[in-house]
User: Which sequence fits this backbone?
């Protein structure tokens, strides 16, 4: 509603206070709240990914964000609520890197067919290096091999280049609560379905439905996470390209065995 206020002999009329609140330093109340929320989330990512979720406190989060503790509760009711938002952002970043890696390798598989070596790395961190001396097209399931290598290259690159994010995803969300466990599984199912779909598109437009798609997605996500967890715990050894070559060799053996079995 309109209000009036007076200073000395001067009177200012009809200054309407809207739901956006009074501007301060050129920013609306909503803009200031949003900025504080982003600072709290950034602090959550930093502390959860370095000290660990269980070691973090609301006070430490606010200290890192440079905010009074009361501002935490302006955006989040509990520390676990903050973990949910942090994890959503971590998974979105991982998803982009992994899918970009798979798409990059799918796109370069035709070029790699003629390659006897050479190296290429995508912006997402995915290694698109062809195994020296191997013509990928001559390998059964060559398109699948290229896409799977891209997925794993993207995941490994993301984990090594973003250790703070990787710690949150690989370790800190595990066993926190039934709510966080379900969030973890839900994201795994969604990403697994996307990976399965991308793989099928790359392999002659194959379409999977129902149980087979879910099982393939679970295999891709489960195997990928286990490989990356072991690699991170092992101080990123063997080197990424060496590990990718081992993965490729193993997948090549599996795909060749499958082709022989179907034949």
Assistant:
């Amino acid at each position: 509603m309109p209000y009036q206020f007076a200073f000395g002999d001067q009177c200012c009329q009809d200054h309407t206070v809207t739901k956006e609140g009074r501007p301060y330093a050129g920013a609306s109340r909503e803009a200031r709240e949003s900025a504080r929320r982003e600072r709290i989330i950034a602090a959550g990512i930093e502390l959860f990914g370095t000290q660990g979720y269980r070691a973090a406190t609301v006070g430490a989060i606010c200290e890192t964000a440079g905010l009074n503790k009361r501002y935490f509760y302006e955006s989040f009711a509990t520390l676990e609520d903050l973990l949910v938002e942090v994890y959503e952002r971590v998974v979105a970043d991982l998803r982009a890197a992994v899918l970009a890696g798979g798409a990059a390798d799918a796109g370069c598989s035709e070029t790699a067919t003629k390659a006897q070596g050479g190296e290429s790395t995508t912006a997402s961190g995915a290694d698109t290096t062809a195994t020296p001396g191997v013509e990928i097209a001559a390998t059964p399931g060559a398109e699948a091999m290229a896409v799977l290598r891209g997925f794993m290259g993207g995941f490994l690159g993301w984990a090594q280049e973003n250790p703070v994010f990787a710690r949150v995803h690989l370790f800190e969300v595990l066993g926190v609560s039934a709510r966080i466990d379900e969030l973890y599984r839900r994201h795994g199912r969604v990403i697994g379905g996307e990976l399965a779909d991308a793989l099928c598109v790359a392999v002659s437009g194959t379409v999977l439905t129902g149980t087979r798609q879910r099982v393939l997605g679970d295999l891709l996500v489960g195997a990928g996470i286990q490989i990356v967890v072991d690699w991170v715990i092992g101080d990123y050894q063997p080197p990424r390209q060496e590990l990718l070559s081992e993965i490729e060799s193993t997948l090549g053996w599996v795909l060749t065995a499958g082709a022989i079995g179907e034949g």
Q: What stands out?
A: The chain is about 65% helix and 0% strand. The beta strands are 5-7, 10-12. The chain has a mean pLDDT of 81. The first strand starts at residue 5 and ends at 7.
